# Entry
Amino acid sequence: MDSLGAGNYTSLTEFILLGLTRDPVLRVFLFIIILCIYLVTICGNLCTILLIRVSTQLHHPMYFFLSHLAFADMGYSSSVTPNMLVNFVVERNTISYLGCAIQLDSVVFFGSIECFLLASMAYDRFMAICNPLLYSTKMSTQVCVLLVLVAYLGGFLNICSFNLCFYSLFFCGTNKINHFFCDFSPLVELSCSDVSVSAVVPSFTAGAIIVFTVIVIAMSYSYILITILKMRSTEGRQKAFSTCTSHLTAVTLFYGTVTFIHVLPKSMYSTDQNKVISVFYMVVIPMLNPLIYSLRNNEIKGALKRELGRKIVSW
# Structure
């Protein structure tokens, strides 16, 4: 630590991440499990992107959003998982001040993008089921690109709010972060400067994104449910509902855990519970999304069979 001279504040050059556990046996076990999860995450999401790109049958708005969701999942998981794996094999896992800022930015950026993309996919399902005659017009290529650009812009603006507050924090005590990544809440707890604004602004921007996207998703599925209930054909109801099950599963998993961490009062859960839930929505869910969309989606399974069939024939 370098002294600032004026006052008792210090300028940190690095932080120490305490990680998930100090138990050596459990660390080896978690290293193997999380490494396998990470490899499946990268392979699964990369395959999803490539399949959507090469298969003309999947050149639809829903899969356009899905390809960007897969990219966001890879970025989200890669923001924390490699560093977490290092934490399992070294005695003292340090991260530089700048590295901490970059990691926080990556988590905020890709997490925000995921929220906006899930909302866009809900809107896409709403248009497909409730306004099928206007679907091709309302969900044109230009509209889809615009929605994706809004997602990336929202992520960038959220980064700006976190950065302004992160660089305004001063530290005068320990540099040990009781987490496996540079989460903003533990950093605020370490700070000895006035956090009345620094703690509120990021919570407000992140909360605004969560609330806005949840409203879009809730309204979309409310109209979808009303439309499905009005259908006279049982087969038509089942077909309409089947196109939403994968997305609904992904939304439930993601927002269920995000709500637990960012909405419920901190007094309702411990730091260790926070770590476990964070592992689930930052490491496990990015692995589950490609499985959810491939195993429960006949179009993706069909496209995968066709592409594999073409490869086999060409060999």
